């Protein structure tokens, strides 16, 4: 059975690069029935610990629907048979495996001070050589009592391995060194802890960033010393910034996933976007539901090249998903995004508004701009018309004349005939009567009704406003424009 894991450190916010790793591990575990997805918190770096970071990780995964089978829960409890799932609570495991290495002659206490080790580094630099701790390995190290760092006693050799993404790979003996297993504070290093945890938790596939490839010879050397078989590895290429010239970082838009959530992005769009950065199913399909991602995902379709972070594509995908999900579902998700007046409006009316503006939404955060004029009469803003590319060519007198013609034509429609079909028919008649163009006449009426840069089609807008409000707004625009 496939067992994958996502093992973040609670040292800051979780950005798209972290979540893509989690997503691929999740999809692999779900693609074959019976797989498990484990969440493990690697919290041994206490100096960089950020309060609230772990909860943010759990909430992000939960929002995205990446439900984990084992690990910590938002309630504070843990589920699973291989816990604890916080490294700071697993010291006995590291201690036991460390003693096994000591007994086998494959680990020793580091007797040097940090200053002495820095002296070795400086000496190597002066001699223009790479620094390797094993070149300074003590002949008679003291017995390890837990107060000194414990180092791995390496046996350098060349290594080769198969990577499910990168293919056949190799690393030379120069990459193998006596790295620290347990620090002087008693906590393990990442290089030791993650391997012990993967062994204890029976992880079958490790999916992580390509920055760990350089350390693979050390990891394989440690697995050999422990007498354990390594898992299957899949190292993912970097996500590059939008220009494609360097790895995505905070300055390049590596925002917290929660920032996108707060900005009105849907989880389906985020999952779709993250999956498309490095993976495709071999077809031209661009929109994938979470279920389709599970059904279609394989590591063999993950590319070896770095993917470019394209926020415009994410925005496009979000707009597509806003159009696709059920209206009732969308209405629930939009609850916190309405404007001041929209928040107070009748729920059924809000749903009607949402049904006609959804096609123009890029994110749910666009709702106030595209809907407030349905809940309260907007302030007349003729400068908005004066700045329009088409309308500013028309003299004010002609603009007023067109609006008067619209009032005259629309006022003849009875309440029972105030339908989309009849409204569009009257608007078309008005177009012919005034010898105007749709980009001029319809845009002018739309501005007079909404005073917003974007709005739904005129018939849809007028139906929701109703005949009285529609005619009153047109009349107010005429009066203010004189």
Q: Kindly report the name of the CATH homologous superfamily of the largest domain.
A: HUPs
Residue share in β-strands: 5-15%
Give me the CATH fold name of the largest domain.
Rossmann fold
Q: Cα-atom Rg, whole angstroms?
A: 31 Å
Could you please describe the fold and organization of this structure?
- The chain is mainly α.
- The chain has four domains: 143 residues, Rossmann fold (3-Layer(aba) Sandwich), CATH 3.40.50; 147 residues, HUPs (Rossmann fold); 50 residues; 105 residues, Arc Repressor Mutant, subunit A.
- The chain is 44% helix and 9% strand.
- It contains 19 helices and 13 strands.
- Helix 11 packs across helix 13 and helix 16 packs across helix 19.
- The longest helix is centred in the last third of the chain and has 24 residues.
Short description:
The chain has 482 residues and is mainly alpha-helical. Helices cover 44% and strands 9% of the residues.
Walk me through the topology.
Blueprint: E1 3-6, H1 16-31, E2 36-39, H2 53-64, E3 71-72, E4 78-79, H3 91-103, E5 107-109, H4 114-126, E6 150-152, E7 159-163, E8 167-171, E9 180-182, H5 190-200, E10 205-209, H6 216-226, E11 232-236, E12 239-240, H7 257-262, H8 267-276, H9 290-296, E13 307-308, H10 311-324, H11 327-333, H12 340-344, H13 347-357, H14 367-371, H15 382-386, H16 396-410, H17 420-434, H18 438-450, H19 458-481
Parallel strand pairs: 1-2, 10-11, 12-13
Antiparallel strand pairs: 3-4, 5-6, 6-9, 7-8
């Amino acid at each position: 059975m496939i067992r994958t894991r996502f093992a973040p450190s609670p040292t800051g916010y979780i950005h798209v690069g972290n979540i893509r790793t989690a997503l691929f591990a999740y999809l692999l575990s779900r693609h074959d029935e019976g797989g498990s997805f484990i969440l493990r918190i690697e919290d041994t770096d206490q100096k960089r610990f950020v309060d609230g970071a772990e909860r943010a990780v759990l909430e992000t995964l939960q929002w995205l629907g990446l439900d984990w089978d084992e690990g910590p829960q938002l309630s504070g409890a843990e589920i699973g048979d291989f816990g604890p799932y916080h490294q700071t609570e697993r010291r006995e495991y590291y201690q036991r495996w460390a003693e096994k290495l000591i007994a086998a002659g494959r680990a020793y206490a580091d007797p040097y001070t940090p200053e002495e080790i820095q002296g070795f580094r400086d000496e190597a630099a002066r001699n223009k050589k790479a620094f390797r701790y094993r070149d300074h390995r003590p002949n008679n190290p003291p017995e390890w009592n837990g107060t000194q760092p414990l180092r791995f006693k390496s046996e350098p050799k060349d290594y080769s391995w198969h990577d499910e993404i990168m293919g056949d790979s190799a690393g030379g003996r120069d990459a193998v060194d006596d790295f620290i297993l347990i620090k002087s504070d008693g906590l393990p290093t990442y290089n030791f802890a993650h391997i012990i945890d993967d062994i204890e938790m029976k992880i079958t596939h490790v999916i992580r960033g390509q920055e760990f490839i350089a350390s693979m010879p050390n990891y394989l050397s440690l697995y050999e010393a422990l007498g354990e078989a390594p898992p299957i590895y899949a190292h993912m290429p970097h996500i590059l910034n939008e220009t494609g010239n360097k790895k995505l970082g905070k300055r390049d838009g590596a925002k917290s996933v929660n920032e996108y959530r707060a900005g009105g992005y849907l989880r389906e769009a985020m999952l779709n976007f993250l999956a498309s950065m490095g993976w495709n199913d071999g077809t031209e399909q661009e929109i994938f539901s979470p279920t389709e991602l599970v059904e279609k995902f394989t590591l063999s379709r993950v590319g070896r090249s770095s993917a470019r972070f394209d926020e415009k594509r994410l925005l496009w995908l979000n707009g597509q998903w806003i159009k696709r999900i059920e209206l009732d579902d969308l209405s629930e998700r939009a609850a916190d995004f309405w404007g001041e007046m929209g928040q107070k409006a009748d729920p059924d009316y809000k749903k009607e508004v949402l049904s006609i503006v959804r096609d123009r939404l890029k994110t749910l955060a666009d709702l106030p701009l595209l809907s407030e004029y349905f809940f309260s009469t907007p302030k007349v803003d003729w400068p908005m018309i004066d700045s329009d590319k088409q309308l500013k060519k028309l003299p004010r007198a002609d603009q007023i004349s067109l609006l008067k013609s619209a009032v005259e034509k629309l006022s003849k429609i009875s309440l029972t005939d105030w339908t989309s079909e009849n409204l569009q028919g009257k608007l078309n008649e008005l177009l012919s009567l005034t010898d105007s163009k749709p980009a001029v006449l319809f845009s002018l009426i739309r501005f007079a009704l909404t005073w917003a840069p974007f709005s739904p089609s005129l018939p849809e807008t007028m139906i929701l406003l109703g005949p009285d409000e529609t005619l009153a707004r047109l009349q107010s625009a005429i009066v203010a424009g004189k």
